[in-house]
């Protein structure tokens, strides 16, 4: 079967610094795959290469078999890959509902056409309400996004990513800065919202990673040193030596 996402000998250098050094990765349709690794390993750079923000120095990225490396982020988005925005990129002067509606409109091919009388489009309103309900933000739908507590802003960010309707979703540290209970809620939301979709997630919280992921890849100095199930990764001597150590014990 064609993988949902496939990286082949992907490389990225900034000047003389080789940051991504020949990454091969195949993520199956419907798989939840986590990328872990120490600070500075190149995880964000990898996401930037996949989502089109950075051009690879060499190598290929394929989405559902189609070559996407070299394309612009919006083109890649249109082809079915959505990446979570940073919190600072949500529209803070709009309401929570309007933020999600933007994602829904975009997925339906309207683009960001704010001048339309979009409130009247029944299908848009229904989809928006469904997503708000799914992520538990329906009661706060009419609040300006700026007034949401931090964890809710992160949740909104995930909701917008999902609202885009993409089949492949990249989440960059979705639980960063959250408390234990907020993290638990976020994991439940991600599990629910990513059903039937392919998920690639960068996350530092090993509890989240070992709970959520079907498979894990470990990135160290721009190279994947191991890929496997949570069990395989937990038991991998190379991984323990290079990175996990006691964190894996804690998450067990
Ligand atoms: N645009 C850039 N120009 C030069 N160097 C860069 C650029 N972007 C990233 N780097 C370097 O690439 C290396 C990897 O950074 P990256 O942010 O991808 O790591 P990371 O694994 O996501 O780290 P963290 O876990 O701390 O977020 C770092 O040494 C960083 O300084």
From TrEMBL:
Gene Ontology CC: one annotated term: plasma membrane
One Pfam assignment: ABC_tran
InterPro entries, per database record: AAA+_ATPase (IPR003593), ABC_AA/LPS_Transport (IPR051120), ABC_transporter-like_ATP-bd (IPR003439), BCA_ABC_TP_C (IPR032823), P-loop_NTPase (IPR027417)
Record has Cell cycle as a keyword: no
SUPFAM superfamilies from the UniProt entry: P-loop containing nucleoside triphosphate hydrolases
Residue stretches making up the ABC transporter domain: 5-246
Molecular functions per Gene Ontology: ATP binding; ATP hydrolysis activity
Keywords: ATP-binding, Nucleotide-binding, Transport
UniProt xrefs under PANTHER family: ABC TRANSPORTER ATP-BINDING PROTEIN, CONSERVED COMPONENT OF ABC TRANSPORTER FOR NATURAL AMINO ACIDS-RELATED
Protein name as it appears in the record: ABC transporter ATP-binding protein
The organism of origin for this protein: Pseudooceanicola antarcticus
């Amino acid at each position: 079967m064609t993988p949902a996402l496939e990286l082949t000998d992907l490389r990225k250098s900034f000047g003389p610094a080789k940051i991504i050094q020949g990454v091969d990765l195949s993520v199956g349709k419907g798989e939840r795959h986590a990328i872990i690794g120490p600070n500075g390993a190149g995880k964000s750079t990898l996401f930037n290469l996949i989502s089109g923000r950075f051009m690879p120095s060499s190598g290929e990225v394929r989405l559902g078999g189609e070559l996407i490396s070299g394309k612009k982020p919006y083109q890649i988005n249109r082809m079915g890959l959505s990446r979570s925005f940073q919190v600072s990129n949500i529209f803070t002067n709009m309401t929570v509902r309007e933020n999600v509606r933007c994602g829904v409109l975009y997925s339906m091919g309207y683009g960001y056409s704010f001048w339309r009388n979009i409130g009247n489009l029944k299908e848009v309103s229904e989809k928006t309400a469904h997503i708000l309900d799914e992520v538990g933000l329906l009661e706060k739908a009419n609040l300006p996004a700026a007034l949401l507590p931090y964890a809710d802003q992160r949740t909104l960010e995930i909701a917008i990513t999902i609202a885009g309707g993409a089949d492949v979703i990249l989440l960059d540290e979705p639980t960063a800065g959250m408390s234990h209970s907020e993290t638990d809620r976020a994991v439940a939301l991600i599990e629910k919202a990513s059903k039937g979709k392919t998920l690639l997630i960068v996350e530092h919280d090993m509890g989240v990673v070992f709970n959520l992921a079907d498979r894990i890849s470990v990135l160290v100095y721009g190279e994947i040193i191991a890929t496997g199930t949570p069990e395989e990764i937990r038991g991998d001597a190379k991984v323990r030596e290079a990175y996990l150590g006691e964190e894996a014990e804690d998450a067990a």
